[in-house]
Protein 1
Amino acid sequence: MRIYILLILFIGIFQFKFAINSFGQSKSKEEFTSTSKKAIKSFKRALTFFEAQKFNEAMVDVDLTLDADSTFIEAYLLGGQIMELQKKNSQSLYYYRKAAMINPDFYPNVLYIIASKEYELGDYKNSYNHYLQYYNHPNKDKRLNTQIEHELEQSEFCLYQISHPLNFNPINIGTNINTSQEEYINSISTDENTLIFTRKMKKVNEVTQKSMPDEEDFFISYKDPNGVWSFARAMSNQFNTHGNEGAMNISPDGIKMVFTASHRDDGLGRCDIYISYRKGNGWTTPVNMGPGVNGPSWDSNPCLSSDGKSMYYVSNRSGGLGNSDIWMVQMDEYGIWGNAQNLGNNVNSKGSEMTPFIHPDGQTLYFSSNGHLGMGNYDLYMCKRDKNGKWSSPINLGYPLNDKENQMGILINSRGDLAYISSQQNGGEGKYDIFYFELDTHIRPNPVNYMKGILVDEQTKKPIKAAFELFDLATNTMIIQSESDAATGSFMVVIPTNSSLALNVNKEGYLFHSENFKLEPGDYSVQKPYLKNVSLKPLKLDQTIVLNNVFFATLSFDLKPESEVELKKVMDLLINNPTIIVEIGGHTDDVGSEVDNQKLSEKRAKAVYDYLVVKGIKANQLAYKGYGEKAPFTENSSEEGRALNRRTELKIIGIK
């Protein structure tokens, strides 16, 4: 953590004379390093103004003092102190440097102050040299050894980063979003067509014309087919209230929204996190996420995971490692959010962590921190989570993305190649504006794609709400859970690349829908999403579905382990609907003899039947039959066609 220890030169503004004498540099009866009566007279007058906190008047006399004697060290030190109290760091540094140039041994601690100022201003080379000069000085404050060693490491790190810059070319997102006010990016949809941000606005009392406290509200913009963002509009008063709102995040599937709000009637602390759910073209009334998430502390900066079951956020609650930490809370199978867990010391530091963003890959976390090795106060970092759930040590995202200024948040698109930040970059419209840029390859997350479409009843063609589950076939674990919109039937599911995946869509009163696929990086993108419209069949006689995720070894009737996900869905269907009777049908292509294909199809159908009976399904709910090559789904003239013909089907053959 970069701890700026302000070594007050003068103990206190009313004890300056004592501090000047304590330097131990006066000779015989001389009170100061100057012998000029004119300079000493001006300097004493400057001290009087300084003690009265009349800094402008004091600086006039400091400059008169130095006009009379340009080697008057105490005057330079006083000038540096006055400029520092007025937060004029560049001018302060000028006076401190002049004092050190005349005699660095007069007050060695000024070397540390110079180094700290240079670091704040991004002058890392001179900062390193002055830290080192002070570290080697015989009259240094030895209590600062550990701190100076850390500062030397910081400066070395910054010099290395500058000599190995990122490919960083930020582009202003445009005046339809950025204004002379301050804009902070909050969330961008998985398809990159919807952007939500916070605008911090100056307010004026219409009656008195006096300035009021700044207000933060949410705004939204949509991208048209030509890639142009629409003029940003304020969101509804469901979200924008008399209090401040910020840090909104929409889940990758687009159905959950979380944000931070203060001073609401149902609040549990200074800032609480609220959640809302998509309903058609609108959202439900936001509700407080409750005591498992919120408390009397400050809770903010929420970000939902791609499966919608985990949320990362920032809190200064007790039990943390620093001023504010990143915490994670999970939702159980009943939709209840549990108690927050600290991410630990690989992510959190003794400083402050802010603005966590978990990429839809579920493994890469980006955040802001002032507690890890960095370029300035708040820098941007990333951590990777391994298969055991352990987070890697943070990686600084590098220069010039990180510099001496505060960097307070970053969002990465689903492909992992484009990033969005709020920054005070050149070319902006106001203090903080939203920019986007191509992300350097070594700090990219794992790319993910997405599937979107419409879900309808096969017979009525009306949209319906149903559950979506995405499974990793290699591990038989569910990685995404979502649902379609009740009003529109629309859905969007994040799809990891380089994995064999099973999709299951189910709703009470319907046969489930399943399929499997594997997407390679680049197969689909924002420009070419994986579009899939799904029709669910009502539970009626003679309705048939293909069990696309039941797999057998080649020319065998041995079920593969990855079939368990699908067979579990068949079991759930039969258990939840005990009045239906189904037939398991086996089908083959026309490769090989008709007799062999008939026998293989029968054995495969029976293998599924046997599996279900062993697992507890009643035999009177089941039947099986082999069809061989007699009922092809399509022509056997291509490998694609033959693959479709090799299938296992489930058919409703009776309803009790």
Protein 2
Amino acid sequence: MKALVFFSLTAMSFAATTQIWEMNGYQDFLRGRSQGLSLTHDGRLVPGPRLDTVFTSDQPQIWSVAQAPDGSIYLGTGNRGRLYRVDASGNAKLVWTADQPEIFAVTVDQHGVVYAGTSPDGRVYRIENGKAIEYFAPGARYIWALQSAPDGSLFIATGDQGKIFRATSAGHGNVYYETGQSHVTALAIDNQGRLLAGTEPNGILYRVSAPNKAFALYSAGLPEIRAIVTAPDGTIYADALGGSVAKRTSSIPGASTGATPVVTAPPMSITVTDAQSGLVQPPKPEASKPAAPVTPAVVAQGTTEVTGVDRSALYKINPDNTVETLWSSKDENAYDLVLSGSDLIFITDAQGRIYRLDRERKPALIAQANEGDATRLVESRSGLLAATGNLAKILRLSANPGPGGWFESPVHDAGTVARWGRLGWRGGGAAFRTRTGNSPRPDATWSDWSDPITDPAHANISSPNARYIQWRAELRSSGIEDVTVAYLPQNTPPVVHSISVTAQPAAPKTSTSSTAAYSVTVTDGGGDNSAGTQSSTLGRGGAQQIQIAWQADDPDGDKLLYALYFRGEDEREWKLLRSNLTDNTYLLDGDVLADGRYYFKVSASDRPSNPAELARETELVSAPVLIDNTPPVVNATRRANEIEVDAEDRASTLRRCEFSIDAGPWSPVEAADGVTDSNRERFNIRVPDLPAGEHLVVIRVYDAAGNAGLTKLVLRTPE
């Protein structure tokens, strides 16, 4: 018997009933863009602090920021290696231009003396009274951080050999500690005057208590420790992320982008976070000196973005060396952090966002600069300052609230063209606008922003029907939360993928039958399914049933009802077999249809899930099915030494002829014209030499449905 190939149609949509798109809570609103607003940890958009531009230059990046005792700040920039001083009033002055393109590190000692580290030919300069002199050349390619020590010495973090140098005066210094990592990326001094160092590429935070004596406080699991902040009680806060070193080195003209050796850290105690408690295991005693580095493993100096894993994290290392993860993100890189009272403030690369973590570790988005490459934070006397890149700027976060701002939602996909309803929100006064389009990102094909919606009682969306929608809110004083958009997606019709018709035994067979099922597949080309299609054939080797089965679904997930029809090849009208079917199979007694070619049609409707006027219906017609329950008629005549067999079948073509002598094995014979392929065929059986006596010859002919017609002939051979 023959079957059909599945006709395939795919679509993406949602249930065709009224839907509600709701933005509610901190994580939802974090997906949007804003300016002049803050997002509280409980998910309210409120007017935020004012962001004032304090400094701007023609440099693309501000890499380093340091505050002097007099309240002024020094800025190290790239890609022309300039050092600026910005006083407390916001007046900027170019202090020095290096002969190297990047100033990645700046620090100011307790006497107001400025030190700057240049790259990619790592050198440290001392700048005092407007004059710069070379202070120390460590022989390293990069200088990533500088830290003034309480005794007046200067610690220098370098790459790409991961060494920390200590310089005591101009031209005098040596290696203080060799980490075994590629880069030392951050430095700080703890409450006991000990040096803290962050590294790359294994993200290890070291406490270096004396020359060649260090303890690994924590291994972050992220490539780089970017920033370290210490508290008076001995608590340490660390910021870990991936890719900052590669990003900074790639900005240097002519910098190598080839492979960089990554040297595994020397054997030492590394704290490991317990998966259950979130605490670290007790560390081993400090090593007296570092062991020899092991053979380095070579990795590419670039970064690979991996979705679904953390890109950055903030850690709190308690005085007892236990570690807590305060914040992590799969989408944003945290580039710097400062401690402001009991709050931790940090900045990320996602449009220059500034976050606050309170003592309960609840995050709040306090400002969004909408600037690229946010790099540094510093808490100055005049307020919190943020450094941004692409066009180097210093922004001051005012203590006073600003005049308000705007929030722009992410784009929402309705799945198909939708009819828009009402926009609703909770909170105070705001002006909402919407726009719609049929491309995933807003472009010139989208509608303009609508007229403002200010009254919740008259908040019908006027934007054109489309698949995608976005809203924008403008706030001046009060806050908003829980914004909803109601819409009705266009109802998508169901899809009938395939229909198959097969013969099924009415009861289990107890003996082997020659009845077989043959199948052929066809696709629905959208027109007459019977055109040019080889028909399938159903036969019967005993009591049988005809099973009609189909595959169908609805892109909207709607419930479906089916109706099943049939008609003969020479008939014009469809006859209903059964309506309101919920199953996708139907059994039909094999005797109710006489021999002939038939078509079956399945109609699928989604009316159980939709109003009658919106319900959709789809149908599919099967390939022609040839029902053949009648065996061929076989006649045999002996002529001399041959038996001439004439066979005919009214419904299907003949397929095989064979004969048996005296109940012996069956022997095949081909049609006289060479091919058995017609409804009527002649077969010539040559009679072999038989022993004297009577012999029984049985001839069997099969049609395409497996029905067998038999006849016999008695031969008598004289002695």
Protein 3
Amino acid sequence: MTMPSKKTKKKTHGIFYTPDQVATLLCNWAIQSPSDTVLEPSFGGCGFLRATNSRFVEIGLNENEIPRHVFGCDIDPVAFEHLRKIYPNSNGHFIQDDFLGLQIENFPSKENFSIVIGNPPYVSHHNMLPDQKKAAWEWLENSSFDSVIDRRASLWVYFVLHGLSFLKEGGRVVWVLPGSFLHADYSNQVRKILQHRFKRILSIVVGSRLFIEDGTEEISIFLLGDGYLPNAVDTCKTSFAFANSTQEVPQIINAWEQDQIESNTITLASLMPLSTQIIYKKLELDSCTISLGDIFDIRIGIVSGANDFFIMNKNEWKKHRFPNTYETLILTRFKDTNGLEFTSKDMKAKLEAGSKNILFDTSRSKQISKSAKRFLDQFPAERLQATTFQRRGVDAWHRFNDNKVPDAYLPYMNNEGPRFVINKARATSTNSVHRLFYFNKQKIPGGKELILKQTAISLLSTFSQLSAELEGRVYGAGVLKHEPSEAKKIKLIMKKKITHQDVVEINEVYKQIDKKLREHKIEEARDLADNFSLSGFPIEERVKVIDDLLKGLALMRINRSPKSWKG
């Protein structure tokens, strides 16, 4: 059996050691008095402990006294190898155990600490080991947060909330957290809890990657909480800032201390680089910018309730010998589309390859044929008890197609950003693919076909892709998800006047992008879309605009990337 590497083991347990420079600048803010006591709940490589020692010396604490002020916990035996280099005799101040199973009584001091500081394990719910899930859920059941915290939350959430029970009134916290602190659904409640437990909070998004040597490129959040209040109070003053690198962090903290950072609601748009924010807002307010919902009604695909039963491949369909009236072509997976359009030729290729794209559809048949009845009789009776079928009624449980053929498709969930695909195959779709119906509320010129093509081009641009990241939500292992109401808000840049030359250009760019996408040349396709959508800018300015937008887009995607150690 091959033994896992140290890097694999670290990643499995969410172990990423904090760089000394980061630990130093954060400890310099957190530790303000020689009488402070510090708890590090996952001390790992001891970066924060080394910085703690240095800070105590700096503010005048005797080196021999320092060990009495510092406490910690870690479940990893390797962490204690690092610890012995700093504290050969820890006198019970450091416990080898799961932090979630500890209480203040387990530490020699028996008193709450002035400061809780650290870098908790970054393990998503999906990647948690059984013992990690067991410890997290047992802690949650015994906490006051059981009714408000989603059990799909990542492991760092439990550490941050459990850490509150170790704080003195008026105490401070410093956490190095993953980007999911700002964008994950389960993080919304965590932020609300923290905002009711501190007098003030600062969140700093750091653009430089702290843990790239450990195999991840995700951004980091420095969370600083000051003035702990054991009992929930009104929402505290919450500030946020973006730092291109850790070198900018001390200045940001100093500005916060001087009350020079605006207090506001945390949004992903506000945490992008300033240059990105400025150009994005400028484009968003431009008269040529509209929302996808201004020209399309967006609906979910049809819900059969049993795709495994109702949707077949070509060979399965032939075996049943159904009349043609029962056949409806259906797109079941957005990834089966490759370009800007899905054609009858594309559908035929899928069917020839054995793909399941034929829907057994009784919606157009007043009478059920014998072959159709034999087929329906095979459906398990127990499955008919599902709510989906019960709502339809006894005689209509198999009639679910609304016979509305969409003009285009949009993915419900995706990894690399959404793509607008024109439906030339005239097929419907399952509810994993959104259906778009043209209605042109904004009276965009050019006619339906030209508007469809221009939309497909525009949505692929960096501006629209960034808009999609900001309007969507992160789901599961970093997948971007858009409900119809969210997809409608995605911004597009559309021409308000159409000349003959514009028609020629739209058709040509559309054709080129479709070809590039089918050849999997994504970046080249995006470049074409950018230069078309931003053609109103002089070439030199356009390059700068695209670069600024790409910085924001990269930050958003790295933040939710399934390849990163997702928090």
Protein 4
Amino acid sequence: MAEIVNMPKMTDTMEEGVIASWLVKEGDQVQAGDVLAEVETDKATMELESYFDGTVLAINVPAGETAQINQAICVIGEKGEKFSLDSEPEAPKQEAPKEEPVETIEQPSAPSVDVASIPAKIVSMPLMSDTMTEGVIATWLKKIGDEVNSGDPIAEVETDKATMELESFEEGVLLYQAAKAGEAVTVNEIVAIVGEAGTDFQPLLSAKPQAQPEPEVAEETTPEKDQPAPAPKEVSAPSKSNGRVFATPLAKKLAKEKGFEISNISGSGPNGRVTKSDVESFTGAPVATGSTTTISPTLTGQESYSDEPVSQMRKTIARRLADSKFSAPHFYLTMAINMDKAMESRKAINDTEEGKISFNDLVIKAAAMALRKHPNVNSSWLEDKIRRYDHIHIGVAVAVDEGLLVPVIRFADQKNLFAISEEVKDLAGRAKEKKLQPSDWEGNTFTISNLGMFGIDEFTAIINPPDACILAIGGISESPKLVDGQLVNTHIMKVTMSCDHRVVDGATGAAFLNTFKDYLENPVLMLA
């Protein structure tokens, strides 16, 4: 009987996997335990083994494509065997109940009104920025009954980027205002109506606007050598009304900055309106004035970008940290630690032949021993209960090309500095080569993120679930200090602990940090 191989859940946070490569092809014979494919999960590239003997009858997900958890990715069975990937039977069709006829009474239709004959026009909310969806009427510059000339600003509109003037392209009297100052109007909705005094404009409000026909797009053709080049597109001359030039507020501002007379610039906008792009492309000379005007050269360039597919690791990092940030109420505790004795101790240890340790190794050991004295920090929030861990497993954030991996130092409080150092080096190396296994990154009870080696003085980190806290380690820097009346240099390291307030209170976190500080300022206590 043919067996369907589904995408397994290879990590605790995995939701989908990418088939990095198939190690078999259709028609190959496989045995239980043979590796079928390499699968890129959110944390590593892992081998997918077969649990069945037989022939590979079909490969359902090609290399490079993504499969959800439990999705069928291949079929194994006897050679020539027929199979089906359909696992759910089609639900039986139910006959819709017969509906009794309902007697309807036709209402007389309202007489149609020819809105084109009404001597009034609608002023709609224009799209004033590329991301605008609505505009707020900041203030009305005209009131109902005021005369309006084409090009007059009738209101100031607050968009998502700036407060801009809304100009009317119609002439007449302001008959109607659709919103009060402070209210929002959606793009393309009615803002006002301008027309002849005394006009009944109500039919314009009740009439549904007719959809504008889409502009015809000419088919793109390749010109022959003998064909003449197409004539350049005409640009309308500056549109004026009573000596006023129609131009957007941004175009007016830009023209003024460049020293251009706005009336000399041809407009490409509606009704010859001058736009920002018209000013930027204008090649005329600036207007001479009594004072010297410095004109900045117009810089041009080509905009470009590239899209990069989001890796499985980055997807999971984004999802988990967003869940943590917006579900766990974070608060932060920062402390400065004198590292003079830690630096002396590290140098003394590294001068021996037993091995080399880093400041990060000292931090891990100090945190592990402090957690032993403050078990409430070594905890997790599980919605209906708080779990206090008796064991201490410290996750150590490691930067890789696609984000962060957090391999775990297990029973860190029971290991000496040399053991911690060797384990960190091994896990970090395998993390960067994407050779970690689930047992290497699961089970953390507390996490440390160290950016001090990258020149960062201090920072805050997002809690790594399911931990209640994460400790952010900054760099070590020199700082002057007054000792017995003498100014001496000391070495200070700032640390910030992010805490889940559902589990850890301020006093609890502060007590832990003070113990952590004692260990680093007196490293001999960690060697006892």
